[in-house]
Design goal:
single chain; mainly alpha; 7 helices; globular; disordered C terminus
Length: 210
């Protein structure tokens, strides 16, 4: 499979994963009666599906701007990719293992390992998003707005961490919307990039035939 086809598949994965992930946020807002409670199983399942597609598509972002983003872009992408993997692990826990815990235990305080996962997820998303956003702006391969969206979404997500209740839900959802906008836009750009060489090849063939 050619590199252009891989970029196209990465772009498609990002475009598919973005709306699916947002559906998870919408379901959490609609069906979660307690703002401080974990998302309902259906929301966690959609979140897991969405983030898995995003994970599949994220390597295309690295490959597309690897020569221009440099070491900063590589470090930022690795840290940001780790945050996505941690997010997938969190959704697996919420969608599967959390449902197996008795209701009485669910109402109690979450274990320390859960808080450690949340803190690590927030830290990696903050650091990775800022570094990858800066590298994206400098590389000028994607639109600079994608880089700014990555930076702002990471800052907003970190700001939501100490908040509680409905305020946390609203701010976190806003951060997710900004992040998904950046990843979806990146996916569209990857698809557009993969189509250019194919169009050039067709034009060259037509010229040669003439």
């Amino acid at each position: 499979m050619s590199g252009q086809n891989l970029l196209r598949l990465s772009g498609i994965a990002l475009l598919v994963g973005s709306p699916v992930y947002i559906i998870s946020d919408v379901l959490n807002i609609v069906f979660n009666s307690q703002a401080s409670a974990p998302p309902p199983p259906l929301a966690a399942i959609f979140g897991l599906i969405g983030i898995m597609f995003l994970i599949i598509g994220m390597p295309g972002i690295l490959v597309r701007q690897a020569t221009k983003a440099g070491t900063l872009g590589l470090i930022g992408w690795i840290v940001f990719f780790c945050s996505a993997l941690l997010g997938a692990g969190l959704f697996v826990g919420l969608a599967v293992f959390f449902q197996l815990i008795p209701q009485a235990a669910q109402d109690g305080a979450p274990p320390a390992s859960f808080f450690a996962l949340i803190i690590t997820l927030a830290a990696t998303q903050l650091v990775g998003g800022i570094l990858l956003g800066i590298a994206t702006i400098r590389a000028r391969i994607f639109s600079s707005w994608i880089g700014w969206l990555l930076i702002v979404s990471s800052l907003v997500s970190a700001a939501a961490f100490p908040l509680e209740g409905i305020v946390n839900t609203v701010v976190t959802t806003g951060a997710d919307l900004l992040l998904i906008a950046a990843l979806g836009w990146s996916g569209y750009s990857l698809i557009q990039t993969s189509e250019v060489p194919a169009q050039e090849a067709v034009s060259a063939t037509q010229t040669a035939s003439a």
